[in-house]
Structures are given as C-alpha cells and as structure tokens.
Amino acid sequence: MELLYLGNTELLTLPKTAFLASGTIAPDVVLRCYNWATGEHEGCVVSGFSSRLEQDVLHFLLKAKVPVIMVLARRMYREIPEELKAPLEQGRLLIISTTAAVRQSRTTALARNRYICEMADHIMMVGVTVNSSLYGLQKEFRNELLP
C-alpha cells in the first residue's frame, strides 16, 4: 500500500480512535454518535468519513476542533474541500490516501478500513450487521461500544 500524506503527520503519534459506520444506521444510534462526536476526545479520531453518518461526525469533530485523520480509499484530493482547508492550515487534520485509484471502490474501501483498524488504539464500529462490509473487520478487531 503506497500512502500519501497531506497535513500534520504528527497526529499519527497521538492516541487514535477509529470511527467506522455502516451505511444504514438506526435513528437512536445516530443520536448517540452525534453526542459522542460533540463530547471530549483524547488524541484524535481516524476514519474514512465516507458514509453519511461518518460525514456528519466529521463536521461535528471539526467544529469542536478535535484533531482528525481522514483516510481516503481513493487518490489524494486535487482540490481540498472548503470544510477541510482551515483544519489543514491549523494543523488539526491529516489526510492520507491509501491508493492511486481515481474513485473509491468496495475493494479500496475495505483495504482503507483495515488500515484504519490496524493503526487505531480504539475502534468504534456502528450499524454493523452480517450483511455489512464492516462485519469481517468487526469480528477481527476489538470494537468499542457507544456509551
């Protein structure tokens, strides 16, 4: 896996909590995730931030100025999204690209999610069912439960 980095690589030395969410989430779990995202965090949060819930959580984390590592399952951005510019400039964001693929695919997303689980000190996966692409990773890696 060839990795490209953009942003503050010192975030890699912090304790890391992975946040991975399935595409379909029960409303009560969504609210608990929002509460978690707006709470206190030690270290940084790492995710692909690609599912709808992960994108919402990213918004809350950035607003709360929590350090974030975003891992892409596609090539590095050619143009940085507006919401990410200030956190990048402030040293609160690291973007890692795990592949040269133009678009994210099921294969590149699975490799990205495995990389996230391997780098994390704590792992939180939500909405995982036997049909979820996260199911195998949840069985392989220890999963933290939402409060």
General description of the model:
The chain is an alpha/beta fold and 147 residues long. The chain has five helices and six strands; from the N terminus they run E-E-H-E-H-E-H-E-H-E-H. It has helices at 27-37, 52-63, 82-89, 106-119, 135-140; strands spanning 4-7, 16-21, 44-47, 68-72, 93-97, 122-126. The protein has a six-stranded mixed beta sheet, sandwiched between helices. The protein starts with a strand and ends in a 7-residue tail after the last helix. The relative contact order is 0.24.
Q: Biggest β-sheet: count, sense, barrel?
A: 6 strands, mixed
In DSSP terms, counting alpha (H) and pi (I) runs of 4 or more, how many helices?
A: 5
- Beta-strand content bin: 15-25%
The SSE string, one letter per element, is: EEHEHEHEHEH
**N→C terminal distance:** 34 Å
Extended strand count: 6
Q: Going across the biggest sheet, name each strand in turn.
A: 1-5-4-3-2-6
Structural class per helix/strand content? alpha/beta
